[in-house]
Structures are given as structure tokens and as C-alpha cells.
Amino acid sequence: MRQAEELRDAVDAYLRSLMFASELGQLEKALRYSLESGGKRIRPVLCLAVVEAAGGDVEHALPAASALELVHTFSLVHDDLPALDDDPERRGRPSSHVVFGEGAALLAGDAFLAEAVRLGLRYDDPRIARELVEATLGMIGGQYRDITGDDDLTELHRLKTGRLFVASVGLGLRVAGVAERDQARWRAFGSEFGLLFQIVDDILDGDGLAGRLPSEDVMRLADSSAARARKQLEGLDANTSVLRALVDAVTFRTA
Q1: C-alpha span between 103 and 226 (Å, rounded)
Q2: Which of 106, 136, 149, 215 sits in a 20 to 30 Å window from 121, CA-based?
Q3: What whole-number distance in Å separates Cα of residue 159 and Cα of residue 168?
Q4: How far is CA 57 from CA 18, 19, 122, in A?
Q5: Predicted pLDDT of residue 101
Q6: Is-contact 189 229, C-beta < 8 A?
Q7: Where are the alpha helices (DSSP H) in 158-240?
Q8: Are 143 and 160 in contact (CB under 8 A)?
Q9: H/E stretch holding 244
Q10: Is the distance from CB of 18 to CB of 67 less than 8 angstroms?
Q11: In a 3-state reduction of DSSP, which class is residue 121?
Q12: Range 153-173 burial, b when 16+ CB lie within 10 A, else e
């Protein structure tokens, strides 16, 4: 059973070797810039950890896991644009649109999404690409709720953050060949993990739920979500030690 750090190394190596469409030409520089900016790779690592826990092959799952990271990076590149969050920095260095211009950053995000779908289509099972696309649509819907001031934070977080985490688990299950009837508890874990991740992000950023509720109440929400995620894992007939470690790592960020 590979630990999270080993899984992240596998994702990084795969992404470095990934060949983008030749038609993109020099735009590839913008893609590489954003993709190699030091992200935690939590979504692809979660996917690979699910694959291994479910008895699947990690190498076979790398395209699906990497597709998740491409979708996530697409969202970050577009989020930073002046039309959305207007953020000049990402992970301690200039955002893509600052370095390459707004037009190039917009196109780079588009290319990330198309390349992600292309990775999903490498599999014989069409449900893999379909799940990736449906999660992306949910994420985009959540982003729209965010920029239009939707007051329903629960639904906003479920879509903007949660859908891609649920898909991280779902893609892992599909690549590993887990039957539909056996997926419910796994997916419930993915939903709780996504909620936990967002709550912790709100605590660290001081916004979202942390901007509306007393700090002790938000901490209780995080602890409850982590407990529910662990409870879902306890009900699985699998070695979920790496998944439990990921829950602990996210929770520890609030300490």
C-alpha cells in the first residue's frame, strides 16, 4: 500500500510526461507554468488511494487521476482572471494571466479542460469521462453561484468544491471496477471529505462559514465532518489506512 507522498510523486511524474496536443503550440508554456506551480494534488491522490484500497491498479488509474488535476487547474486559472476573483498571485507567484496575458490564460484554462476530457476518454468505460464532465459542470455551477452572491453556502460548497472530490472517489471506483451496488459508502466518504476540505479552507481563509459563524461552531462542523468521513471508511471491507491519513492531514491543518 503506497502512502500519499508516493502517490503524489506518481501523479507529478505522469503530469511531467504528459504530451499536450501539438495544435496548442506555444500555449503549452502557460499550461506547464500553472500545472507545475506546486499544488498539493489532493484530488488525484485521493483517486489513486481509492483505487489501491479497492484493489485496482494505480498505473492504470493515472490518466483518470491526472484528468482531475487538469480540471482543478483549469478552475484555478479561470478563477484568478480579473472577471472572476482578480487574483494577481497563485501559490506565491504571479497568476497565469499576469505572466501570459488574460487571453492566453483564458485559452489555457480551456485547453486544460479539453485535455482532461481526452484523458478520460482513454478508458473503454464511457462512464469515466461522463463522471468527469458532470463533476466539472457541477463545479462551474458552484462557481457561478459564488460570483452572483448566492446565499446558500451549503449548496455552493457541494457544487464548487464537493463535486470534484466525489468524482475523485467515483473515478477511482470505476477504474478499479467496483460494482455500482457497492459504491454508495465510498461515495458518501467522498462527499464528507469534500465538505471537510471546504470547511477547513474557510477556517484558514477566514471567509465562507468562518465569516458567518463563531469559530468554535465552525471547528465543531469540521470535527463532525471528519468523524463522519472516518465512519464511512470503517464500514468498508478494504485497507483504507491511506484514506484515513488523508482525512487526518486535512483536519490537522486547523490545529
Answers
A1: 40
A2: 106
A3: 14
A4: 19, 22, 15
A5: 98
A6: yes
A7: 163-176, 184-205, 215-234
A8: yes
A9: helix 241-252
A10: no
A11: coil
A12: beebbbbbbbbbbbbbbbbbb
Spatial contact of 176 and 166, defined as CB atoms under 8 Å apart: no
First-residue to last-residue Cα distance in the chain: 27
Q: Residues 13-43, buried b or exposed e (16+ Cβ, 10 A)?
A: ebbeebebeeebeebbebbebbbeeebebbb
Other Cβ atoms within 10 Å of 152 Cβ, number? 10
Question: Rounded to the nearest 5°, which phi and psi values hold at 90?
Answer: -140, 120
Kind plus residue range of the DSSP H or E element containing 254:
none
Instruction: Supply 72's cell numbers.
Output: 482543478
Q: Retrieve residue 81's grid coordinates.
A: 482572471
Number of neighbours of residue 196 by Cβ within 10 angstroms: 26
Element of type H or E holding 41? none
Residue 108, CA atoms < 13 Å, CB-side half-sphere:
30
Closest CA to 7 of 228, 150, 15: 15
Mean pLDDT by 10 residues, the chain (255 residues): 95 97 98 91 98 97 98 97 95 95 98 98 97 98 93 90 96 97 97 94 83 85 94 96 96 70
- Cell, residue 98: 499576469
Cβ atoms of 172 and 193 closer than 8 Å: no
Which single residue is written with the C-alpha cell 488523508? Answer: 246
Q: Is 254 exposed, middle or buried (0-12, 13-18, 19+ CB in 10 A)?
A: middle
Domain extents in the chain: 4-252
Provide CB contacts within 8 A for 87, sequence distance 6+: 79, 80, 95
Q: 4-252 has which fold?
A: Farnesyl Diphosphate Synthase (1.10.600)
Residues in the chain: 255
**Residue 112 corresponds to which cell in the numbers above?**
486544460
